[in-house]
Amino acid sequence: MSPPSAKEVAKHFLVMLLLIAKASIISSHVLSLELIKGLDILHKQEIMA
């Protein structure tokens, strides 16, 4: 089995980076949605109080 070429390694690295970037974008999007939801609930509680 021959060692992978630099091109192969670079391609693999780019794919990994893309996946990580995608995952972090999704998680930050979910986090911001949760934050908005939380702030909305707090706001409603203030109005009712």
UniProtKB/TrEMBL annotation:
The chain crosses the membrane at residues 12-36. Keywords: Membrane, Transmembrane, Transmembrane helix. The keyword Membrane applies. It comes from the Eukaryota. This is Uncharacterized protein. It comes from Vanilla planifolia (Vanilla).
